[in-house]
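Consider this:
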Amino acid sequence: MLAGTGSDVGKSIIATGLCRIFRQDGYCPAPFKAQNMALNSYATPDGLEIGRAQAVQAEAACLPPETDMNPLLLKPNSEHTTQVVLHGKPVGNCNAYQYFRREGRDELRNEVNAAFDRLAQKFNPIVMEGAGSISEINLRDTDLVNMPMARHADADVILVADIDRGGVFASVYGSIMLQTPEDKARIKGVIINKFRGDMRLFDEGRKLMEEICGIPVLGVVPMFSDIVIEEEDSVELRQKCTSAVAGKTNVAVVLLRHISNFTDFGVLERDERVNLFYTNNTDDLQKADIIILPGTKSTLSDLYELRRNGVAQSIIRAHKDGKIILGICGGYQMLGQMVCDPNGVEGSIEQLPGLGLLPLVTTMNHEKVTRQVRFAFHKNDSWVYPECSGYEIHQGETQIIDDCTTERMQPLCLFAEGGTDGFIYNGTCMGTYIHGILDNMPFINFLLGCIDKPVESIQTEMTTEEFKNLQYDKLAEHLRKYIDMNKIYEILC
């Protein structure tokens, strides 16, 4: 198990790299995280939902993702509540107090333990990941994912600490000393992550940490910027809140409060023709050639905020000025005339007017659509590029308004198994439920070709899958250089 001194110390990325290393070394590893809290999720091949981080780790291990890798997923939404997804299916909403109370906790514990047991029968080693800090002793009795899970799995634990945020000695020492004697004995090593500068400057620090804690430091891993691994949460998005630049196609992704699945934009971020930035600044939106309304865990709450802060009016004005608008999932729902939630699926807001750019009405319902899809899209009055792929994760049914004129309104995508998705209206406004639609270069070329200036169409030298595999290999090489893998294997034996 990779446990942490805190949140965002890099447990997920190191777990991803170890999955790749074990696979390269001839083993059959699989990732496991008993409970994940994230808005970025992924649809498994059998149409269920898990955290994006475990899907990424499964890719690194060359496995299709399955729900036993992340049996419990918490997806925060508005009004201080969280959607609980168990074995890939939502089972209800609850607040933090309800979730962490002792009553009924054993039932969830049995479920995640059983998922681990099933996984361990098929794969070896299991690369387990903890959550947040292992030193939250006030939650020790109700914890499902850290040391109690390590005890169930009889797992050795490696503690990951972030030196970049400061206080690394106190965080490592405190995390170890706050454990019970039984749990403390499980901690077999420390990895210092996110180091900046000359590695030699920490030689003395490494010796001191081993001396003080009585546990070996297995590696000091430098910060990197040249390896692209999909992020688990939106912590890093604030660093991408730049603005328009001259000489490129400017794509603005609206920075929603409950933004989800922003991994949709990774390929577009790397496209040299494009300057992609995240913003909720109304002036910056006016400078963009293309505005994308992304997915959200709380469509109505974010729509209310867009109307309150003037972003909705700015998007409408940009569309009138000829800018291209694309909505994905919750963003697609917002582009319609009305979003209704009569059953309180998302919260207390029963309905809100949308941006009115597409003649559609969305009604939220309890049933959640989670599936992988293959599709063609509508271009020049014909369906093209049937090899495109993506996935759906959404609640809500979107329908065209009965009395609207559909002369300039066409379905955007055609599924390989039949049926259509989304709409494109007048060639300038389009919406889709398909996450990952922008992982397909033909669709990116189509989108960039919609703007009123010449953009060269390109063909990628490698597919998205090939690019990801290259990044996993680079990550494995990086970790091998700075982590003592011989000691890791000694611990495993």
